[in-house]
UniProtKB/TrEMBL annotation:
SUPFAM superfamilies: NagB/RpiA/CoA transferase-like. InterPro entries: MadA, NagB/RpiA_transferase-like. PANTHER family: ACETATE COA-TRANSFERASE YDIF, MALONATE DECARBOXYLASE ALPHA SUBUNIT. It comes from the Bacteria. This is Malonate decarboxylase subunit alpha. The lineage of its organism: Bacteria, Pseudomonadati, Pseudomonadota, Alphaproteobacteria, Hyphomicrobiales. GO terms for molecular function: transferase activity.
Length: 554
């Protein structure tokens, strides 16, 4: 006898959950603050995949804290699937026994605690993803059953305005709602009319006006006052030896003082080199305050943003030729689209890492700190699906001796992937090691693979105070390892460099020191920076930039 299969089990299950929650949801889908915890206990079930919107910057912090207050006897063994875990509440759910497993992309301030929880068995790690990888899994095997998101405002019907920081919201909501999941939003304010509708009301099941505005982190803000002469030297080598050498126009800058130094040198040293209009014209980038002088100097044609940056709201609104803004004038950011642009449209990614091994593999996940990868693996790889060409992409590809090894005489380009760092990092920890700590983390977390951020075969250039290693010009692994040793300084890796070997690499143009680039280190001084402190950034902006309080030192 044929048994009739039910094809709407998810829909029926959601209806049952929403029926249990109905008494907590009033007109306009509004929920009282005091009813949020019982609401969560009504809609979440043990073992659910749950997303708490934790972005690089904006956080559904009120809902994250509410989830920590549910009864573990009722709600437990949750599988958290969220891009970032920067708040204490994101890990408190594991300490309380409410959550069991985590799939994420970026740890930020909780990176040390994540490592501890893994080591102590409080947290089962699924994988450390890149953002785009995790978003893709939202649409396949990691679809959230319940998502807790945040927005600036909601109207009386439940439509949402995400404003300056949209970030991950659209991809979370669509993946959840269109597979019959439940979406609950915290907002700063409920209003009669929104500046624009970013998420329609019929995609939202409940809205709560949180007691205070959601937390937002100025993650990409760097004080020019903390840029050192070492950062400036590295930045000068990058500008002359890589930006100018390859004529890279479409770029992503990772977080850090090296890229901030590059941004602040564009209107000064960059113009001395004659690079304006030839380099760094389109970027996939958050609105970094240190980009203001370059924008004002006419270097930048367009910037598409992953998210916003606190204090840059008015500046972005006033520079709509550069930034993508809505009809209301505010920034429209979207992490999924920015990651896609970063994966396929860039000529170069330049960032940093905590550790790099003797083969060029790098990771920000160590035994004691699981910082995660964010978008670096997407932007720091050679996207094999790319089918359009640029001069810099083709030039980099032509320099790779083994580029056509498996495709005959078929030409192909290669993205520039640059890792720039001082040979010794925070606490004098060596940046270059024989074996990544990621191997130990894999053992602790019972992972099949060590969590590598960027694999060595994707890295084309390494930049340290010792010089630039053009790894894309190396014919084999032994030559690559020798080039890495040549720029690894007094680390265990660098101490194995042989002077005669390094000289040969310099003669062949595979390694270039500052002297080889005709850069005098004594000229790498702070007076080269277009802005030397936060106040000068405000002046460059014509008063439009409003730095967060902790960056105001005047």
């Amino acid at each position: 006898m044929k048994v009739e299969r039910q094809w709407n089990t998810l829909e029926r299950d959601t209806a049952q959950r929403m029926e249990a929650a109905a008494r907590f949801i009033g007109p306009g889908k509004q929920v009282k603050v005091e009813d949020v915890v019982p609401l969560l206990e009504a809609v979440v079930r043990p073992g659910d995949k749950v997303n708490v919107e934790g972005n690089n910057q904006k956080q559904a912090d009120f809902l994250a804290e509410a989830l920590c207050k549910v009864d573990p006897a009722k709600i437990h063994d949750l599988h958290m699937v969220q891009s970032s875990v920067p708040l204490a509440a994101h890990l408190d759910v594991f300490e309380k026994g409410i959550a069991k497993k985590l799939d994420f992309a970026f740890g930020g301030p909780q990176s040390g605690r994540v490592a501890t929880f893994i080591r102590e068995g409080k947290l089962e790690l699924g994988a450390i993803h890149t953002y785009l990888e995790l978003f893709g899994r939202y649409c396949l095997d990691l679809t959230p059953r319940v998502s807790l998101i945040c927005a600036y405002e909601a109207d009386r019907e439940g439509n949402l305005y995400t404003g300056f920081n949209t970030e991950d919201t659209p991809v979370i909501v669509e993946a959840t709602k269109f597979r019959k999941g439940i979406v609950i939003a915290q907002v700063n304010k409920i209003v009669d009319k929104l500046p624009r509708v970013d998420i329609p009301a019929d995609w939202i099941d409940a809205v709560v006006q949180s007691p205070k505005p959601f937390f937002i982190e100025p993650l990409f803000t760097r004080d020019p006052g903390l840029v050192t002469e070492r950062h400036i030297l590295l930045a000068m080598m990058c500008l002359k030896g890589i930006y100018g050498e390859y004529g890279v126009k479409r770029i992503n800058h990772g977080i850090g003082f090296l890229t901030s130094a590059i941004e602040l040198l564009l209107p000064t040293y960059g113009e001395e080199l004659g690079l304006k209009g030839k380099c760094c014209t389109q970027l996939v980038l958050n609105p970094h305050p240190t980009m203001i002088p370059a924008i004002e100097s006419g270097w930048i044609e367009a910037i598409y943003c992953f998210g916003g940056e606190l204090g840059m709201e008015n500046y972005v609104r006033a520079r709509s030729d550069v930034f993508f803004t809505g009809p209301d004038g505010s920034l429209r950011s979207n992490r999924a689209l920015a990651q896609t642009a970063g994966h396929y449209a860039l000529d170069m990614f330049i960032g940093s890492t905590l550790q790099i091994d003797q083969y060029g593999n790098s990771s920000t996940a160590t035994a004691n700190r699981v910082a995660g990868f964010g978008g670096a693996p997407n932007m720091g790889c050679d996207a094999k699906g790319r089918r359009h060409s640029t001069d810099s992409w083709l030039k980099c590809g032509r320099e790779v001796p083994s580029m056509n090894e498996l495709i005959g005489d078929m030409p192909r380009g290669k993205r520039l992937v640059v890792q720039g760092m001082e040979t010794f990092g925070e606490g004098r920890a060596p940046a270059f090691v024989d074996r990544l700590d990621a191997w130990k983390l894999a053992e602790n977390a019972k992972l099949d693979l060590p969590p590598v951020m960027i694999y060595g075969d994707d890295v084309t250039h390494l930049v340290t105070e010792e010089g630039i290693a053009y790894l894309n010009r190396c014919a084999d692994l032994e030559t690559r390892m020798a080039a890495i040793r040549a720029v690894a300084g007094y680390t265990e890796v660098g101490l194995r460099a042989k002077p005669e070997e390094t000289k040969r690499l310099r003669d062949d143009g595979i390694v270039k020191t500052a002297a080889d680039l005709d850069i005098d280190p004594d000229t790498a001084t702070r007076d080269r920076l277009a802005a030397r402190n936060m106040r000068e950034l405000v002046d460059w902006s014509g008063g439009l930039y409003n730095p967060p309080a902790r960056f105001r030192n005047w």
